[in-house]
Amino acid sequence: MANLEIIWAELGISADYAVLRGLPLQPEAVELISIGADNQNRDCQLEPEAAQAWRALQDAAKTEGITLEPVSGFRSVERQAQLIRGKLARGQRLDDILRSNAAPGYSEHHTGRALDITDGASPPLNESFEQTVAFAWLSRRAKRFGFHLSYSRNNPHGFVYEPWHWCWQEQAEVRRPLS
Ligand SMILES: [Zn+2]
Predict the structure, then answer these.
(1) How far is the CA of 173 from the centre of ligand 1 (A)?
(2) pTM of the model as a whole
(3) How confident is the model over 44-53, as pLDDT tens digits?
(4) Dihedral of CA 76/167/161/64: which sign?
(5) Second-level CATH architecture of 24-75+109-168
(6) Mean residue pLDDT across the chain
(7) How far does residue 84's CA lie from ligand 1's centre (Å)?
(8) Domain ranges of the chain
(9) How far is the CA of 10 from the centre of ligand 1 (A)?
(10) How many whole angstroms from 165 Cα to the centroid of ligand 1?
(11) Cα of 72 from ligand 1 centre, angstroms
């Protein structure tokens, strides 16, 4: 992983960011596979198990007439830094940026398990996604495929509400009785 201290110093992110926001370090995925093109026709990648779960989720939605498309999957620490640099260069305040972009090293997208999802019709990465049938379907069914909404309304991490951002988690193993 890139040197976070150097990147944070450059961007002006304070050293106590992760503690104050209650965020765990998100290691970069080691292995990635393509899940096809995102909504801007860039190759979108996820970690293999998350990719498999995503395909199952997307197929299940499709059979019920629901379109789910990826907007953004894996993102490297360096790419996260570039996104923040770009917003700073356009005059946005760091505090505002960090409400919708995690500091480099702390984005779930680094793990290759997080996915921003659109229905292909409503504006991507917009709270209005909450009003779509796709979101209603995800809210009912995504959990069964291991996907969870990460940043609910008024989440304790100080992120804006992100109804489009879903993260896959390994399903809990069947518990064995303690011996
Ligand atoms: Zn996201």
Answers:
(1) 26
(2) 0.93
(3) 999 999 999 9
(4) positive
(5) 2-Layer Sandwich (3.30)
(6) 94
(7) 14
(8) 24-75+109-168
(9) 23
(10) 4
(11) 7
